[in-house]
Amino acid sequence: METKSKKVVKMDMKQYGMFFALIAIYVVFGFLTKWANATPMNINNLIMQNGYVVILAIGMLLCVLTGNIDLGVGSVVAVCGSFAGIIMMDYKMNMWVAIAVALLVGLLTGVFAGFFIAYLGIPPFVTTLATMLMGRGLTYTLLQAQTKGPFDQSYNFIGAGFLPVIKVPFGDGTMDLVSIAVAIVASVLLVASEIKSNATKKKYDFAVNPTWQIALKLALMLFIIWFFFYKLSRYNGLPFVLLIMVVLIAVYGFITSKTVAGRQIYALGGNRKAANLSGIDTKKVFFWVYVNMGVLSSIAGIVLSARNGSATPKAGDGFEMDAIASCYIGGAAVAGGAGTIVGAVVGAFIMGILNNGMSLFGWSTDIQKIVKGAVLLGAVTLDVLSKRKKG
Amino acid sequence: MSEYILEMNHITKEFSGVKALDDVNIQVKKGEIHALCGENGAGKSTLMNVLSGVYPYGSYEGDVVYKGEHCAFHNLRDSEAKGIVIIHQELALSPLLSVAENVFLGNERTSMKGVIDWTETRKRAQEMLAKVGLENEDVNVPVNTLGVGKQQLIEIAKAMAKKVELLILDEPTAALNDEESKKLLDIMLDLKKQGITCIIISHKLNEIEYVSDSVTIIRDGKTIETLVKGVDDYSEDRVIKAMVGREMTNRYPEREGVEIGDVIFEVKDWNVFHPDDENRQMLKNINLKVRAGEVVGLAGLMGAGRTELAMSLFGHSYGQKISGKILINGKEVHLKNVKEAVKNKLAYISEDRKTYGLNLIGDVKENMTIAARPFFFSKNGVINANDEIVASEDYRKRINVKTNSINQIVGSLSGGNQQKVVVAKWMMTQPDVLIMDEPTRGIDVGAKYEIYCIINELAKAGKAVIVISSEMPEIIGTCDRIYVINDGEIAGELTKEEVSQEKIMQCIMAHNRKGDGNGNEE
Prior knowledge:
The complex is a heterodimer of chains A (391) and B (522).
Chain A: H1 2-6, H2 13-32, H3 40-65, H4 73-89, H5 95-119, H6 124-143, H7 153-160, E1 167-170, E2 173-176, H8 177-203, H9 211-233, H10 240-258, H11 260-270, H12 272-276, H13 282-308, H14 319-329, H15 341-361, H16 365-390
Helix pairs in contact in A: 2-15, 3-9, 3-10, 3-13, 3-14, 3-15, 4-5, 4-6, 4-13, 5-6, 5-13, 7-13, 8-9, 10-11, 11-13, 14-15, 14-16, 15-16
Chain B: E1 4-15, E2 18-29, E3 33-37, H1 44-52, E4 61-66, E5 69-70, H2 76-81, E6 84-87, H3 99-103, E7 110-112, E8 115-116, H4 118-131, H5 148-161, E9 166-170, H6 178-193, E10 197-201, H7 205-211, E11 214-219, E12 222-228, H8 236-244, E13 263-274, E14 277-291, E15 295-299, H9 306-313, E16 320-328, E17 331-333, H10 338-343, E18 346-349, H11 353-357, H12 364-369, H13 373-376, E19 378-379, E20 382-383, H14 385-398, H15 415-427, E21 433-437, H16 445-460, E22 464-468, H17 472-478, E23 481-486, E24 489-495, H18 501-514
């Protein structure tokens, strides 16, 4: 009630809590590995290694918002990669055809799953369990259980390439001015958009956050931006994968928060019957969510095969679990209807930093899985308990 | 031993500093039916949770004396062991399990430890069912094949199986029609003869008047008074006065200065078949007209087809093989889906807000704007968030939704305020025709009054309003004209001047007879 008169609201701490968790985990591994995880090369690897998980987590979030998951994404990643490989290696066609075919295959798998889920009412868990098995089988068949490669450098650029750089000597190495320029532009845009949104709020006489909170939030965001871009500038500049990621995050962040279609996914996840009676074609929403997942899986498939420089039958194995875990760690509700793109991306990075830190520390992948499982369970437990306390 | 089976003395229960119950006293005589009345949030359910041990001993202050003993229940099992059983509004039955298994759910008949004795279970279940007037039911069928009324009775049978002495029923008739309600209340009277004491929580004051021997009224967590039948004034008005703390001179606000205009909504020869059975006709040749500024009621028993009619009109949301014409503002419209319906200025405020009306984990703003969004708050699919906030704030104030802000989660609001959010959602689509299905179910007297005021406002603004309600006094009190629906047909039309509960029932009975008795009872 007082908030109305004072026109201030508390910040949603949950969203920023995740950023703090991300930083905390990073710092812990920083100490453990004597800051081996802070070298420019490692920061670059973090982005390149986690690019496809981030891409998948974005698509998976939409599935999670409907209250479901897609188990088939790892297999679709492999199928799309192998199609691209076959087009380039066996048919000797150029990479653009390969990319187009891979995207088309992803789209078709999405249409396939979406049709069964939306229009035949088959539970997504079952449908995507089937696409997972079928996709993996198809990949092995297509590749005859062998690795196909090596691919052309121009294709590999997608997964392993860098944007143009302007390197100047700096300290004991070089620094890329393009990275710094982008960081400056990003900072200015961030501050400007915050100021604008607050001005609009004041114009409409809405409640605004206290200034110190806005300042803290901006400081945190700027710190993360500059940390990343500075480290990248000290290595080879901006990876192409980063560009893909940023574009996807921006586009899907916009769709989920600012468009009618995006909000319909939340309404569907919150209460399907009510959404139906509110004029939302929930079948259509379901269909497009899974088509979208197919397309994003194919993008991830292209990025992965480009980074590996080859298509392998085991590619993308278990990615679906990483993507699902990212969404839940990022605060998405298991029953659907709540969650954000930024959350899913931060969730993916938390997973990535854990993986990366543990590898640097010398823990085997077996141990890593145990830790990841524990983190997932812990994050969701915290989320559930905190909600219960409020309710 | 005193004449009271149950005494709850000076009960005080706090939730993080807020007193939900403040020195509440209630005495229940052995063998009586004792009603507990109060607006939503008055503390009735909290009191019953204290009694049944859901809030364990020690978490409240005060004293519970049952059969002369001081009680310290720590959970439901403790209270059930003493013969106190509570039946909640939401049924605690497992839908796919058989009737027999449900009767002994959590209280299984076993031959040796952990192994169910099915013969015994079925036999004893049959006995229990006989006690609640269901001796002819097959105990082997899944419980979800029975109607809600029977399921409610099975809940009672389940309580009987636990050797109940004090039975608490929380809103037992909320989901039942008049006939089923009557049956349930008669079963209660029957249980009374068997020596079982009952506490009934209900909003339906006519039922309380019919069934109970005394009534305790709670308001804002405090006991107001206890009235005894045959001693005190036991009329509905008297109880309402105690509940709301003031005289309710008129439960249905007068509509003043409303001009009834031309026909703006017309349905011609509307036929609908069951969605799963194309040979089963659910609605037959429905014809109706509503004028601008007019409030028209659809009366009828549950299952008569009123909700089915509303939903089939609203973008074919129910049924198949739909035929007939809809005219809005004199023009024929084809409403193939909900979006078309909304576009053509038709709105349907569904019954059962939690299941069909609200995204309970969404906030007030999201819920209010979701239906109107494609038409009013977006451009090329992109939302104008600021317009949404302005509109939501506007409606929040206009129809008095009690919430901290438009960002509050709808699930945390009271029933009355949730209903207002649903109403706001549909007002935002700026309809010409509004169908309100059970607009006041499960909300307290004060909130009901506010909903009636909103209906009047809508009429004043020249909208055509259709009200569907199972509560006949509500239909009679709010509507200018009433269509009586029975068995998928219009059984009669009554004007405000001629309508009465008896007239409505006469229409239904006459229509039933015309149907040549071929309508089976299900």
